[in-house]
Structure formats: structure tokens, C-alpha cells
User: Fold this.
Amino acid sequence: KKGHVIYLSPQGKILTQEKMNTLSSIEEITFLCGRYEGVDQRVLDELIDEEISLGDYVISGGETACMAIIEGVTRLTPGAIDDIESVNQDSFQNGILDHPHYTRPDDIGGRKVPEVLSSGDHASIERWRKKQALGATWIKRPELLKNVKLSKEDDKLLKEYIAEFKDNEHK
Assistant:
């Protein structure tokens, strides 16, 4: 029994969070990692079930890609991370980037944690987090927003974020 065989290659389909989610449900995976010029095509034709790439670039072998997939799939495995809700809120799980995170102390060199996060108002905190996540996606990875169906509330939050961003640019 060979399980599901994945060949790691720059010619494969690009690895996404959606693919990680799919792979996490497969019981047994075998990785084939080529070096330099890759693997004999006859071996690929005979053994592999799919070909995956980390992106549009070339590295010397598939081992790094293999480690990335193992890390990504492991964290989706029940019991690997205590707080499964944390996993569900990660960047890309919902098609957008994650919101900013803050720790203690509340003030570092004059830069303070946003007041809403210390307010105790969980609905306001959740709204702020969603707005910041949408805004971060708009700034850093706008192409992701083309693939996400935003709710009316999310659309409103994004528009608010963009307006605030543009106002701050002119100050």
C-alpha cells in the first residue's frame, strides 16, 4: 500500500490553504522529493497521484516543500493544537488574512494596543478584528478579495477601513 503519493515540483499546482485542508483528511501520504533536475518521468507516470508546488520559483529539492506541507497538515490534525478555533481563524482559512495581534505590555515605546481590545466589549473586539483582517488583505493581498464572497457587514467594514486608510494618508 503506497497511500497518496505527492511529488513536490515547481511544475505542480500551487499549494493553498484549501489544499492543506484536503490533505489533512488523507490518512497516509507519501512524499517524493526530487533533487536538481527532478525525478525520472517513468517513475512519476507510475507512482504519483498529484504534483504540488510551493510557488513560481525553483529550489534545489522538494524537502523544504515537504516540510511546509507536513507542518501545515499537522496543525489541522485534531489534537495537534489545543485551540481549534485558533486554527479556524488563521490567515487563509476564510480566504482573507488574519487580523493584527497584540500582547502585553499595553504600551511599547509609546505605541499602544488599540483601546477596543482592552474594552471587554466582545462584539466590538470581533468587529475590529474582522475589519482589520479585511483591511490587511486589501493592502497586502488584494487579489484574495476577488475570490471571497463578502457578507453585507464585511463589505461595509472593508469600505470603512478603506475610507479611514485614505483619510490617514492625507494627514
Notes: The radius of gyration is 21 Å. Helices lie at 17-23, 41-47, 63-74, 84-88, 122-140, 152-169. The CA atoms of residues 20 and 60 lie 23 Å apart. Residues 122-140 form the longest helix (19 residues).
